[in-house]
Amino acid sequence: MHTKTFGSLSTLLAVALLGTSAVLAQGAPPAGGGGGFKLPPLLMQTDAFPDGGVVPPKFVGRTGVQPGFTFSNAPEGTVTYAIIFHDLDVALQGGTDDVLHWVAWNIPASAKGIPEGKLPEGSVTGKNLMGQNAYMGPGAPPGPRMHHYVFELYALNAKLDLPETASRNELLAAMKGKTVAKAAYVGRFVSPPPAAAPAK
After folding, report:
1. 175 torsion bin: left (phi>0), alpha (psi -120 to 50), beta (else)
2. Where are the chain's structural domains?
3. Burial of 168 (0-12, 13-18, 19+ CB in 10 A)
4. CB-neighbour burial class of residue 154 (10 A; exposed 0-12, middle 13-18, buried 19+)
5. Mean per-residue pLDDT for 89-110?
6. What is the dihedral of CA 29, 31, 32, 33, to 10 degrees?
7. Which uninterrupted H or E stretch holds 92?
8. Which tens digits make up the pLDDT trace of 157-191?
9. What φ, ψ does residue 21 adopt, rounded to 5°?
């Protein structure tokens, strides 16, 4: 009985190894091997704060300054970029929508990024959650944890024909079939607790 079980296990192992060899021979990584796609990643980088780091006061709140970014490793054929900046840690009105802080599109690929505090000529800034065509910095209220704010960068092979009044959903719909790469950059923030009243 033990001999039969061992023989069955040996057969299964041999088949598994043959399958793995076939996958590797075709150039595809085995599941769970960490190989993934061999595509060069689109990159967005900034000196304003490290990816995953805490957003400095300069860039937070309704009067905060829009950080500058550089874009690199865009695929050939990239014409424009779009950015969606939102707070992942909020669910609004019982749904799955979060807080949209900033949205922009038709950023020219030739600009290779965006300068601090403004967008290159030809870019369009859409409406944020407050209905303003402007950047709105992080503003999570005091609490036990940081909120995660993500800048999603989309490389597109076309210019978008959208008005400034377009919603995030309309932007996402317009990008379908035109997105050639995507990148993200994350900042964390939570407002400090209010200062304690002085003792009398």
Report:
1. alpha
2. 43-189
3. middle
4. buried
5. 92
6. -20
7. none
8. 999 999 999 999 999 999 999 999 999 999 999 99
9. -60, -40
Tell me the CA distances in angstroms from 140 to 69, 91, 126, 193, one per residue in order: 23, 13, 22, 11
Q: Which residue has the tokens 């992942």?
A: 88
Give domain 43-189's CATH architecture. Alpha-Beta Complex (3.90)
Angle, CA of 164, 168 and 172, to the nearest 5°:
110
3-state secondary structure of 171: helix
DSSP state of 42: P
User: Which of the four pLDDT bands, split at 50, 70 and 90, describes residue 199?
Assistant: low
Cβ neighbours, 10 Å, residue 189: 23
Q: For the segment 50-61, what is each residue's pLDDT rounded down to a tens digit?
A: 999 999 999 999
* Tokens coding 107: 């950023």
- Residue in 91, 103, 80 with CA at minimum distance from that of residue 152: 103
